[in-house]
Every structure is written in structure tokens, then in C-alpha cells.
Sequence to fold (144 residues):
Amino acid sequence: MKKTVLFRRYKIWVWFILLSILFSLFTAFLSGSMQIKQNMRYDAPLDEYKAHLDKRIPALMKQYKIPGCSIALVQDGEISWTEAYGYADLESERKLTVDTPMSVQSIAKSITAWGVMRLVEKDLIDLDAPVSEYLKSWEFPDSD
Fold:
């Protein structure tokens, strides 16, 4: 009889823990603190990629409280798509457009580093090679 009581208590605790975990995950998902992330294929058609950005960018802006951002996609050295999201000025509720002058600030360094490391992962470039091997249209000053 004692084993039956212990087993019932154990069973109740297991159910309590499982339900608590499921409730926590459900609450996190509904609150937006946990999102199901859809990965894009690197070879996705441009229209599919644009549709993905049109969904993800506003969600990320809301999550990180970003009032506005402008995005440009460059393919083969040419701008293939631009879009602006949010506001240029929150107080006056002036919408951001692709023609609104903006400063890219330091985010360009992070994006460039990420892109370079993706190329390294795919063995498309050598991280230890001089950058002049890849950037042929630029002339760098002599340096050590």
C-alpha cells in the first residue's frame, strides 16, 4: 500500500512538471518572446526572399523596438531591391522611405563580418589571404 501511494505522488509530480513546461512554452510563444524561425534557402528566388523579409523585418523591429530601417539587396554589384519599414521620425509620424537619408553606422561592420564568415564556411574565400586578392576594383595604399 505504501508503494502505491508513493507511485501516485510520483505520477502527480511528473504530470505537474510536464504541464508546467508546456504551459510555459505556450505562454512564451503567445507573448512573442519565443518565435518559430523560418530559415531561408540561400538560393531562394528574389520574390520569395522579399516576401520573407516583409514578414520578418516588422516582427524584428517590434521585438527590438526599432522605429525604422531601410534595407537594400545588392546582387552582382547592382541594387536589386530596396524597402523601408517604420518611421523616420516617431514624433511627427513621418514614414521612412527608401529615399530618406540615413547613416548605416556600425551595423555595416557586423553584417560584413557575418557575410565574410559565411563565405569562409563555404570555402569560397580564405580568411588568411590578403583582401586585395578578392577586391580587385579597389586600390589599397601600401602598408605592412
Observations:
- The beta strands are 68-75, 78-89, 94-95.
- Helices lie at 2-31, 46-64, 107-121.
